[in-house]
Write a structure and sequence with these properties.
By secondary structure, this protein is mainly β. It contains two helices and seven strands, in the order H-E-H-E-E-E-E-E-E.
């Protein structure tokens, strides 16, 4: 078994939309988690570490093409590869 998850360098910008230039299926298959301003975010559509923003879906709203409407939030973005087994990175249960 190789240690690819620990040595994988995550890109500065990543998107879930397959039409985007920043889409990378190989990295997304490994499971990318986002910590935004110290809180876990599970609804992130796209992120950029160097510019310090994430795009999250705006409820169930859709644009005229059927794509989810998004909101850009600015702050500290920390992407990481999610550990196998569904645990958080610290090993603690998430607060709800």
């Amino acid at each position: 078994m190789s240690d690819d998850t620990a040595s994988t360098e995550l890109p500065d910008r990543l998107s879930l939309d397959p039409r985007s230039a920043h889409f990378n299926e190989d990295i997304l298959k490994k499971g990318v988690g986002i910590r935004f301003n110290g809180n876990e975010k599970t609804n992130v559509e796209e992120y950029c570490v160097s510019e310090g923003w994430i795009r999250v879906s705006a409820g169930r709203s859709r644009d005229r093409y059927g794509n989810p409407m998004t909101i850009k939030l600015k702050g500290k973005v920390e992407p990481y590869i999610q550990p196998a087994g569904g645990e958080t990175q610290d090993g603690d249960a998430s607060e709800g």
